[in-house]
Amino acid sequence: MTGQPVRRLGIMLFPGVEELDAIGPWEVLSYWTREFPEDGWETFCFSADGAPVTCAKGLTVVPHHATADMPPLDALLHPGGQGTRPLLADDGHLDWLRGLRRTVPLMTSVCTGSLVLAAAGLLAGRPATTHWGSLDRLAQLDPTIEVRPDDRFVDDGDVVTSAGVSAGIDLAVHLVGRLATPERARQVSRGIQYEPR
Known about the structure:
DJ-1/PfpI family protein, DJ-1/PfpI, Class_I_gatase-like
């Protein structure tokens, strides 16, 4: 370790989350933080109540924390999936995201997680993307969003969104390169043998 405080990236879990939206980035980010602790980052998963979460296709995942007891975040990853649909109208969840925005330097989303960020007003006036089947919905939620239908992910500084499902892996590799170094991203990609051609 460098002697600097550990920075933390949390992956949000919720009922109906798309498995690969969360587990794909988890594979990349947890490999990075476990194999290269000297970079000073930690990755964990959390849910609203800390209870096991049943994902969209039936996989059950046990989070590390509940929102009430998790350590402070330096980055949030909000996945998508069918479970985002109720969250779009969940005032408590949207208010929680707005509160996080005030203290968390980096907000990211995979797939339809960007719809939830949009519903919370966090993508106003920004470029963003989502799953190809939800691009129109993203534009409807906030017409000020510059929807980018052809981008695998969109990095707008303190907010990064990705396209659907497997694009979360590309987002996570990008985050390693950004939060550590491009060489580290290459090492992580090699380590998990993620080398698309």
